[in-house]
Amino acid sequence: MTRTKTFKLLSIIITLVVSGSLSAQLDEPNNELEGAANYFLDSSDATKWAVIITGPTVGETNQAQFRQWSFSLHDILTRDYGYSSDTITLLYGRGAPALPGGDRVDGATDRQSIEQALSDLASRVATGDQVTLYLIGHGSGAEEEAKFNIVGPDMTGSEFATLLDQFDRQDIVIVNTTSASYGFSTSLSSEGRVVISSTRSPSERYDPIFSRYFIEALDSRNGDRDKNNRVSMLEAFEYAKNNVEAWYEEQGRLASEHAGLDDNGDALFALNPTVDAIDGRLAEIAYIDTLVDDTANLSQEARELKAKMQEIERSVFILRGRKQDFLDANYWEQMEGLLVDLARATGRFNDVAGLPEEEEISADETLSEQTNETPPLQ
Amino acid sequence: MKLHLCNKYHLTLSSLLLSCLFAAPLLAQQQQTNTGESPLFRGEQLLINGSYAAAADIFQMADGLDRNEGIVGASKAFFMMGNTQEAINIIEQVIEDDDYASYPLLSTQLAEVKRSIGQSAEAIEILSVLIEGQFEPPVRALVQYGSLLRFVGRKAEAGEYLDRAVQRYNNGLVFASEDVVMVALASWLLGNFHDANSLFDEATRANPNNLEAHVLWGDLFLEKYNASDAERSYQDALDINSRYVPALVGIARVVGDERSLQRALAINPNSVIAMEAYGQLLLMASRQDEALEYFERALNINPESLKTLSILAAQAAFNQREDEYEAFKSQVDEFSPNNPQFLGDVADTFGNNYLFAEAVEFARAAIESDSEYWQGYTLLGSNLIRLGEEEEGKANLEISFENDPFNVLTSNMLKVFDTLETYATLESENFKVHMSQNDADILWPYLEPLLEESWDTLTVKYGFEPEGPILIEVFENTEDFAVRSVGLPDIGPLVGICFGKVVTLISPDTLSANWQEIVWHEFMHVITLQMTNNRMPRWLSEGISVWEEREGRPYWGRSQGLDLVRAATEDKLLHIKDLNSGFSGARNNADLGFAYFQSYLVVDYITEEYGFEKLAEFIDQYAVVKEDSERFNEVFQLTMDQFNDGFLGWIDRRVEEINVFVHTEDVPDEGEGHGHGIRENSSAILAELYNNASLKQHMRSRIEENARDFQAHLQLGIVLFKEEDFEQAKFHLITANDMLPSYTGYPSPALVLSQIYDREENRAEQLRWLEILLENLQHDYDSAMILADAALAGQNFDRAAYYIDRAIQVDPYRSGVHELKARYATAIDDSALAVTEYEVLLKLEISDPVEARTDLAEAYLKNGQIDEAKQSVLYALEEAPSYRRAQEVLLQSLDGAPN
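Output (structure tokens, whole complex):
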């Protein structure tokens, strides 16, 4: 990717939060983080596109499951995240099944349809848009030979990666939930991309249940861990991973799948990605939905309060990122002060904005709209 | 003397040279067998193949330079057949004027045979003469002499000769497999177990047909509780010679196989090791009299049989026959003063019989006798642990491990200490509990009140307060549980074990069973064991514990009406005096489960027919040593036969009351969790897979044959339910339920009926049948949850609490039941209870910790725990600073009260 963009506040905050030590960051600029700042800028101007590609399968149970996952994902993206039939492409098995809901399907999952669909999409996307590809189905093989099973000759990871090259001005997320997905997923790894794989080893070849919980994370924003009414790829990944582990434990079975995430382009998938680890930084800011700018109708006082809330929240992130620099009591004393200020400011903002309770918004929903200045360092 | 193992090139070269040396006399052999082979060669072949009689004959044909070797071979062959006298005679005929030094091979064999029949003094004399008279006595003679000196307590001298054998090896002068195995034995006796292991390996590689090497190697493994490697070694020997008695005995010692011992004794009727092993096996199966016969036979052949004497001494001490014990001890002291192994074996017997304090005493005595008897430290440590003396126990295990790291039992037990170091320790008034942090967070809130309730209820009922605090150890890992309980990682189906003052349990998180029933059951053991100074027989202790399950909660216990009818019909009930063998002789889980059930029935019989006071009186009888017949006579004024007749009559009446027909084609339900888990009715489960039409027809014909065929009604009901013929299904299921309302198998008539009403959307009837179901079935989480939810919705809070508790008894690790209980707590305005539930929910939450922390903060706030509320919500907001609900809770916590 070669594009450059305005350096938005949210990215700055994330950059600061993920740095373990602020002073260290000042002394030694982190090139990796600076690079990361160019991706997933989360602009309200950008459009989010989804491509769901569901491979063919045999057996009634598998067919029903793949159909349910694909259609549910389509519906959840539409219902909860502002996507529409125009922004979702669903390629399904041998084409639209003669079943209720079959009209969601845009084509079959064969090589020609995939190439055509991605080519069409490439002609419609704008710079800075986000394209998320969900792969559901079976995979086979390992490493370079790993394939996604489609109708007709299967597709290798490198072939699929080539198809993605046309999206060099967009943010790309790939959620590969197929069996034996690991080798295929490694081929898709690239700087600025978030790649989620339901398996993290060539030996994990059985059909995973990761899809089920990933979709559940999206459903009604179940995965929204930080309660900002948005679900990031990292949150959805964590939700799915934790629930997959619990499922195997409850079944009393050894887990035959371990999901991994790679977002630094090294093709090494982290089992426990976090915002302050090697993998997890981009996934944290790669949201499923598009940011909504709803500040236009606010009064001056409300705008000022909003700015104050964002300022405090930024301070919370910074303090949290420097937690290890403080004595525990001191840290919590400062954190409490910030959080109380934020709570009071939010309450005041909701009063001033006159929002009904269910519509009350929090600071970070519009955070990236406010400024492109570097926050004050403490 | 430490060993310097030679490299393989040295060994190969030496073997070649040796082969050449041996080849010359063979070529010079004059007499040949009719196969053209030398008698010595042919005799060896026959001996290795187990054709002992033929081998004895052929060996005696050897002459010339082979003569002495032939006689040794013949003596060995006679010995393998148990003809000890001939084994001696054939040698003594050759050795003139006790000139043992001139006949080193013959003398060594003679000494070994004499030792085997308890003539250790003569054996020592023979070897002493031999070794004094030889510049380079055979390695075998040195090692056998050292072994004998050690056996009779002359340990320092023994070390000298054993060292000489090892030195010989180090000097590169030991080549033959038969001698290498002796050096291995010397290393073993010197405590160099690693060297011994390597040398056994070398000996078996040099000569894969060396049976002695395979068996001794197996014995070394067995001494170290490494059963799998021991079995492999014995099996290697048996693969070569299936009639090799020491290997047959070895296998029997590993797997408890009676047939191997019968075979061993058929081959060698005078095998002392076979008799000892057989006696031990019979003792374990509570067949005392038969066991004694074998021990007596063993002593008649070998009055110096240390194992037999230690077992008999332990039995005497166990039964407080002090004079008898002293007599056995004196007998041992005569040939082996203060033998540490004798004392260790006695300690082991006491420990295995739950008399841990006595076991500790004997283990200490063994160590005092020989501070390098490392097994003594293991015995001391493991028994101290069972008395709750963890620190001293661990210290002794560490001493043992440092000096004998190959002892699997020692290393296993120490590994469990590593696990325990990660565990939390919690204490209540009468209990100290070790458990994982996960269990401490989730289980402890429900375990603590149950433990104290069991203490309050059962101590009052039995008028006995056990010595406390009682140590409870809850293991998440089944292997840790097994090792802590018995030292080895396989303990079969057991889920909890009581040692008197210590109870080990498998964590309910690892288990599929009613954990509360298990805890109650085990605490009852604490009472009965301590009341009788750990002398209560297993059948009675288990019978009372199972009986008290039902007393604890009406839906606990074992309602196995079908099993009772089946057992009575098949005449499977054991005589009262054989009840213990029902446990020790159980061949499978079903046998073991039935032993529990019958023991419970006997206790039920006692309390029903004679009253609870008689049961308490009966328990007291076991605090003192006496014959069982005396106990029955004193309490019931009956002989054991009379008591048994009364019991069988009572069983007949119960079977009549149950009045159910059990068809021979039906199999018993299979229980999980060692009787505390669900019992699956496999026939009924399979009913869903059968061809409906034929099954229906078959079950209808069975019902025509006998209208009281419970299983036929149940299975027919299931098939009709599948076919959605609900009315007919109801008829048969209700008939089955009326016939045997206490049936607790899965699926049961009540369960299927509830499903029918669910399909018919008749909520009231569905709930009614679920209530009926749970009157007896204690393992159904989902049904309890449905009933709890319904009760809460109907504001029937007592019933809601009851069913919530029922669900927690099955699985306290599911968040659903805690969410329900939190709702219940809120509904009844019990803020403290709500806090408990939200604390548990926080530990269980994996998807939304922010929400869980906020819920908990709210609960704290309502319970007046302002500081806790603030901290909990700060944790939530740290992760989700803009979460409005949490912000509000934070502001409320500053005000000090919820809005």
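Residues 48-285 of chain A form a domain with the Rossmann fold fold (CATH 3.40.50.1460).
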